[in-house]
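Problem: given the chain below (393 residues), write out its structure.
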Amino acid sequence: MSNALVSHNPDISRLVDKGYAVAFDDLPYLIVRDIPYLDNERRLQTGAIVSKFVDVGQDGIIQENHEIFFAGSVPHDEEGKPIPHLAGGPTTLALSEKSKDVVVQRSFSNKPVPSGKFEDFFEKIDSYVTIISGPAISLHRANPYTFRVVDSGPSDSPFKVRDTLTSRAEIGDLSAKLKDDIVAVIGVGGTGSYLLDFLVKTPVKEIRAFDPDRFFVHNAFRSPGKLDIEEIGKFKAEIYRARYDSFRHRLSVTPKYIDASCGSDLDGVTFAFVCVDKGSSRAGIFGLLISKGIPFIDVGMGLDRKRGPIDGMLRVNYYPPERAAELRDRRLAPLFDDPNDIYRNNIQIGELNALNACLAVIRFKQLRGFYFDEEQCYHLLFELNDLCIRTEK
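Solution.
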């Protein structure tokens, strides 16, 4: 149980004082365990109430709506009939690992009369317990006020704020597929900076980013976030580390050039993104990742003005360890420096950098089972002239 949440919310404190077994999930759910109820044979069972909350800052929370989730079967009355006026139905809800003992099976909706809205969490939980546990209290003298302190251990969340997005969308089970990854981002220029921004907001275990360059005005036009004029001339690593420091734990951004000699920097990495624009640099990084058996995605774009307006394509290539050397040798990405490459002349556009990063993160999430993956492609091209995506398996 979070002492800060209890002390800063009088309604939660009242629940604890009354004896409810209050706890909080890593995701923003209030959990009240030890809720007695009757099954269809009037036998005593124990369930748990789960309620979403909204973080309003400074450890303040409010209820999202009047509904609850319930870990248990259908509650029955003293005659063995389902308790009436509990709208809702069977559902599931993925909680975090720390609350794995709570298995949500259904949702309930019972608006208070006449207001249609609970004043606070105390009124909400107390009302639902009266309805759900009333028959069990009457028939078996059951007691929902156990005063139990639920110690679910330290949080393993990488975030310094609560992940209210995941709970609102009810996709905790899918987000959990990313939680064991240690991800490297090699290069935080145009595409890499957007990619880092997206990854920071995923529950991956750790992020290590690398870039040796400094941040100048042109970088501000193709990177996410605000511009602080004092950032000009500083290392990109310093800027992005500070920008996301308040958002998550286990993020390092190092002003370093990654080449074949940097094996120790990638120890433990489970996936990498290569976001560099020099073919010779890419070749060295590919060799290092292949030698360490790290799966990776390489991104890039080729743009030109042969027809006046800018034309070209964006590239996302996935290199699984078992095929990485083969795919590298097919030269799907440039592995040498072309002095005439228009990309090297700084024709990069923010929206294309962002789109390139989006495609790469989507592909990574497909590989982890977050998004459905029918094509299972390793080579993806987005063509600007007709806005079409072409893939190869």
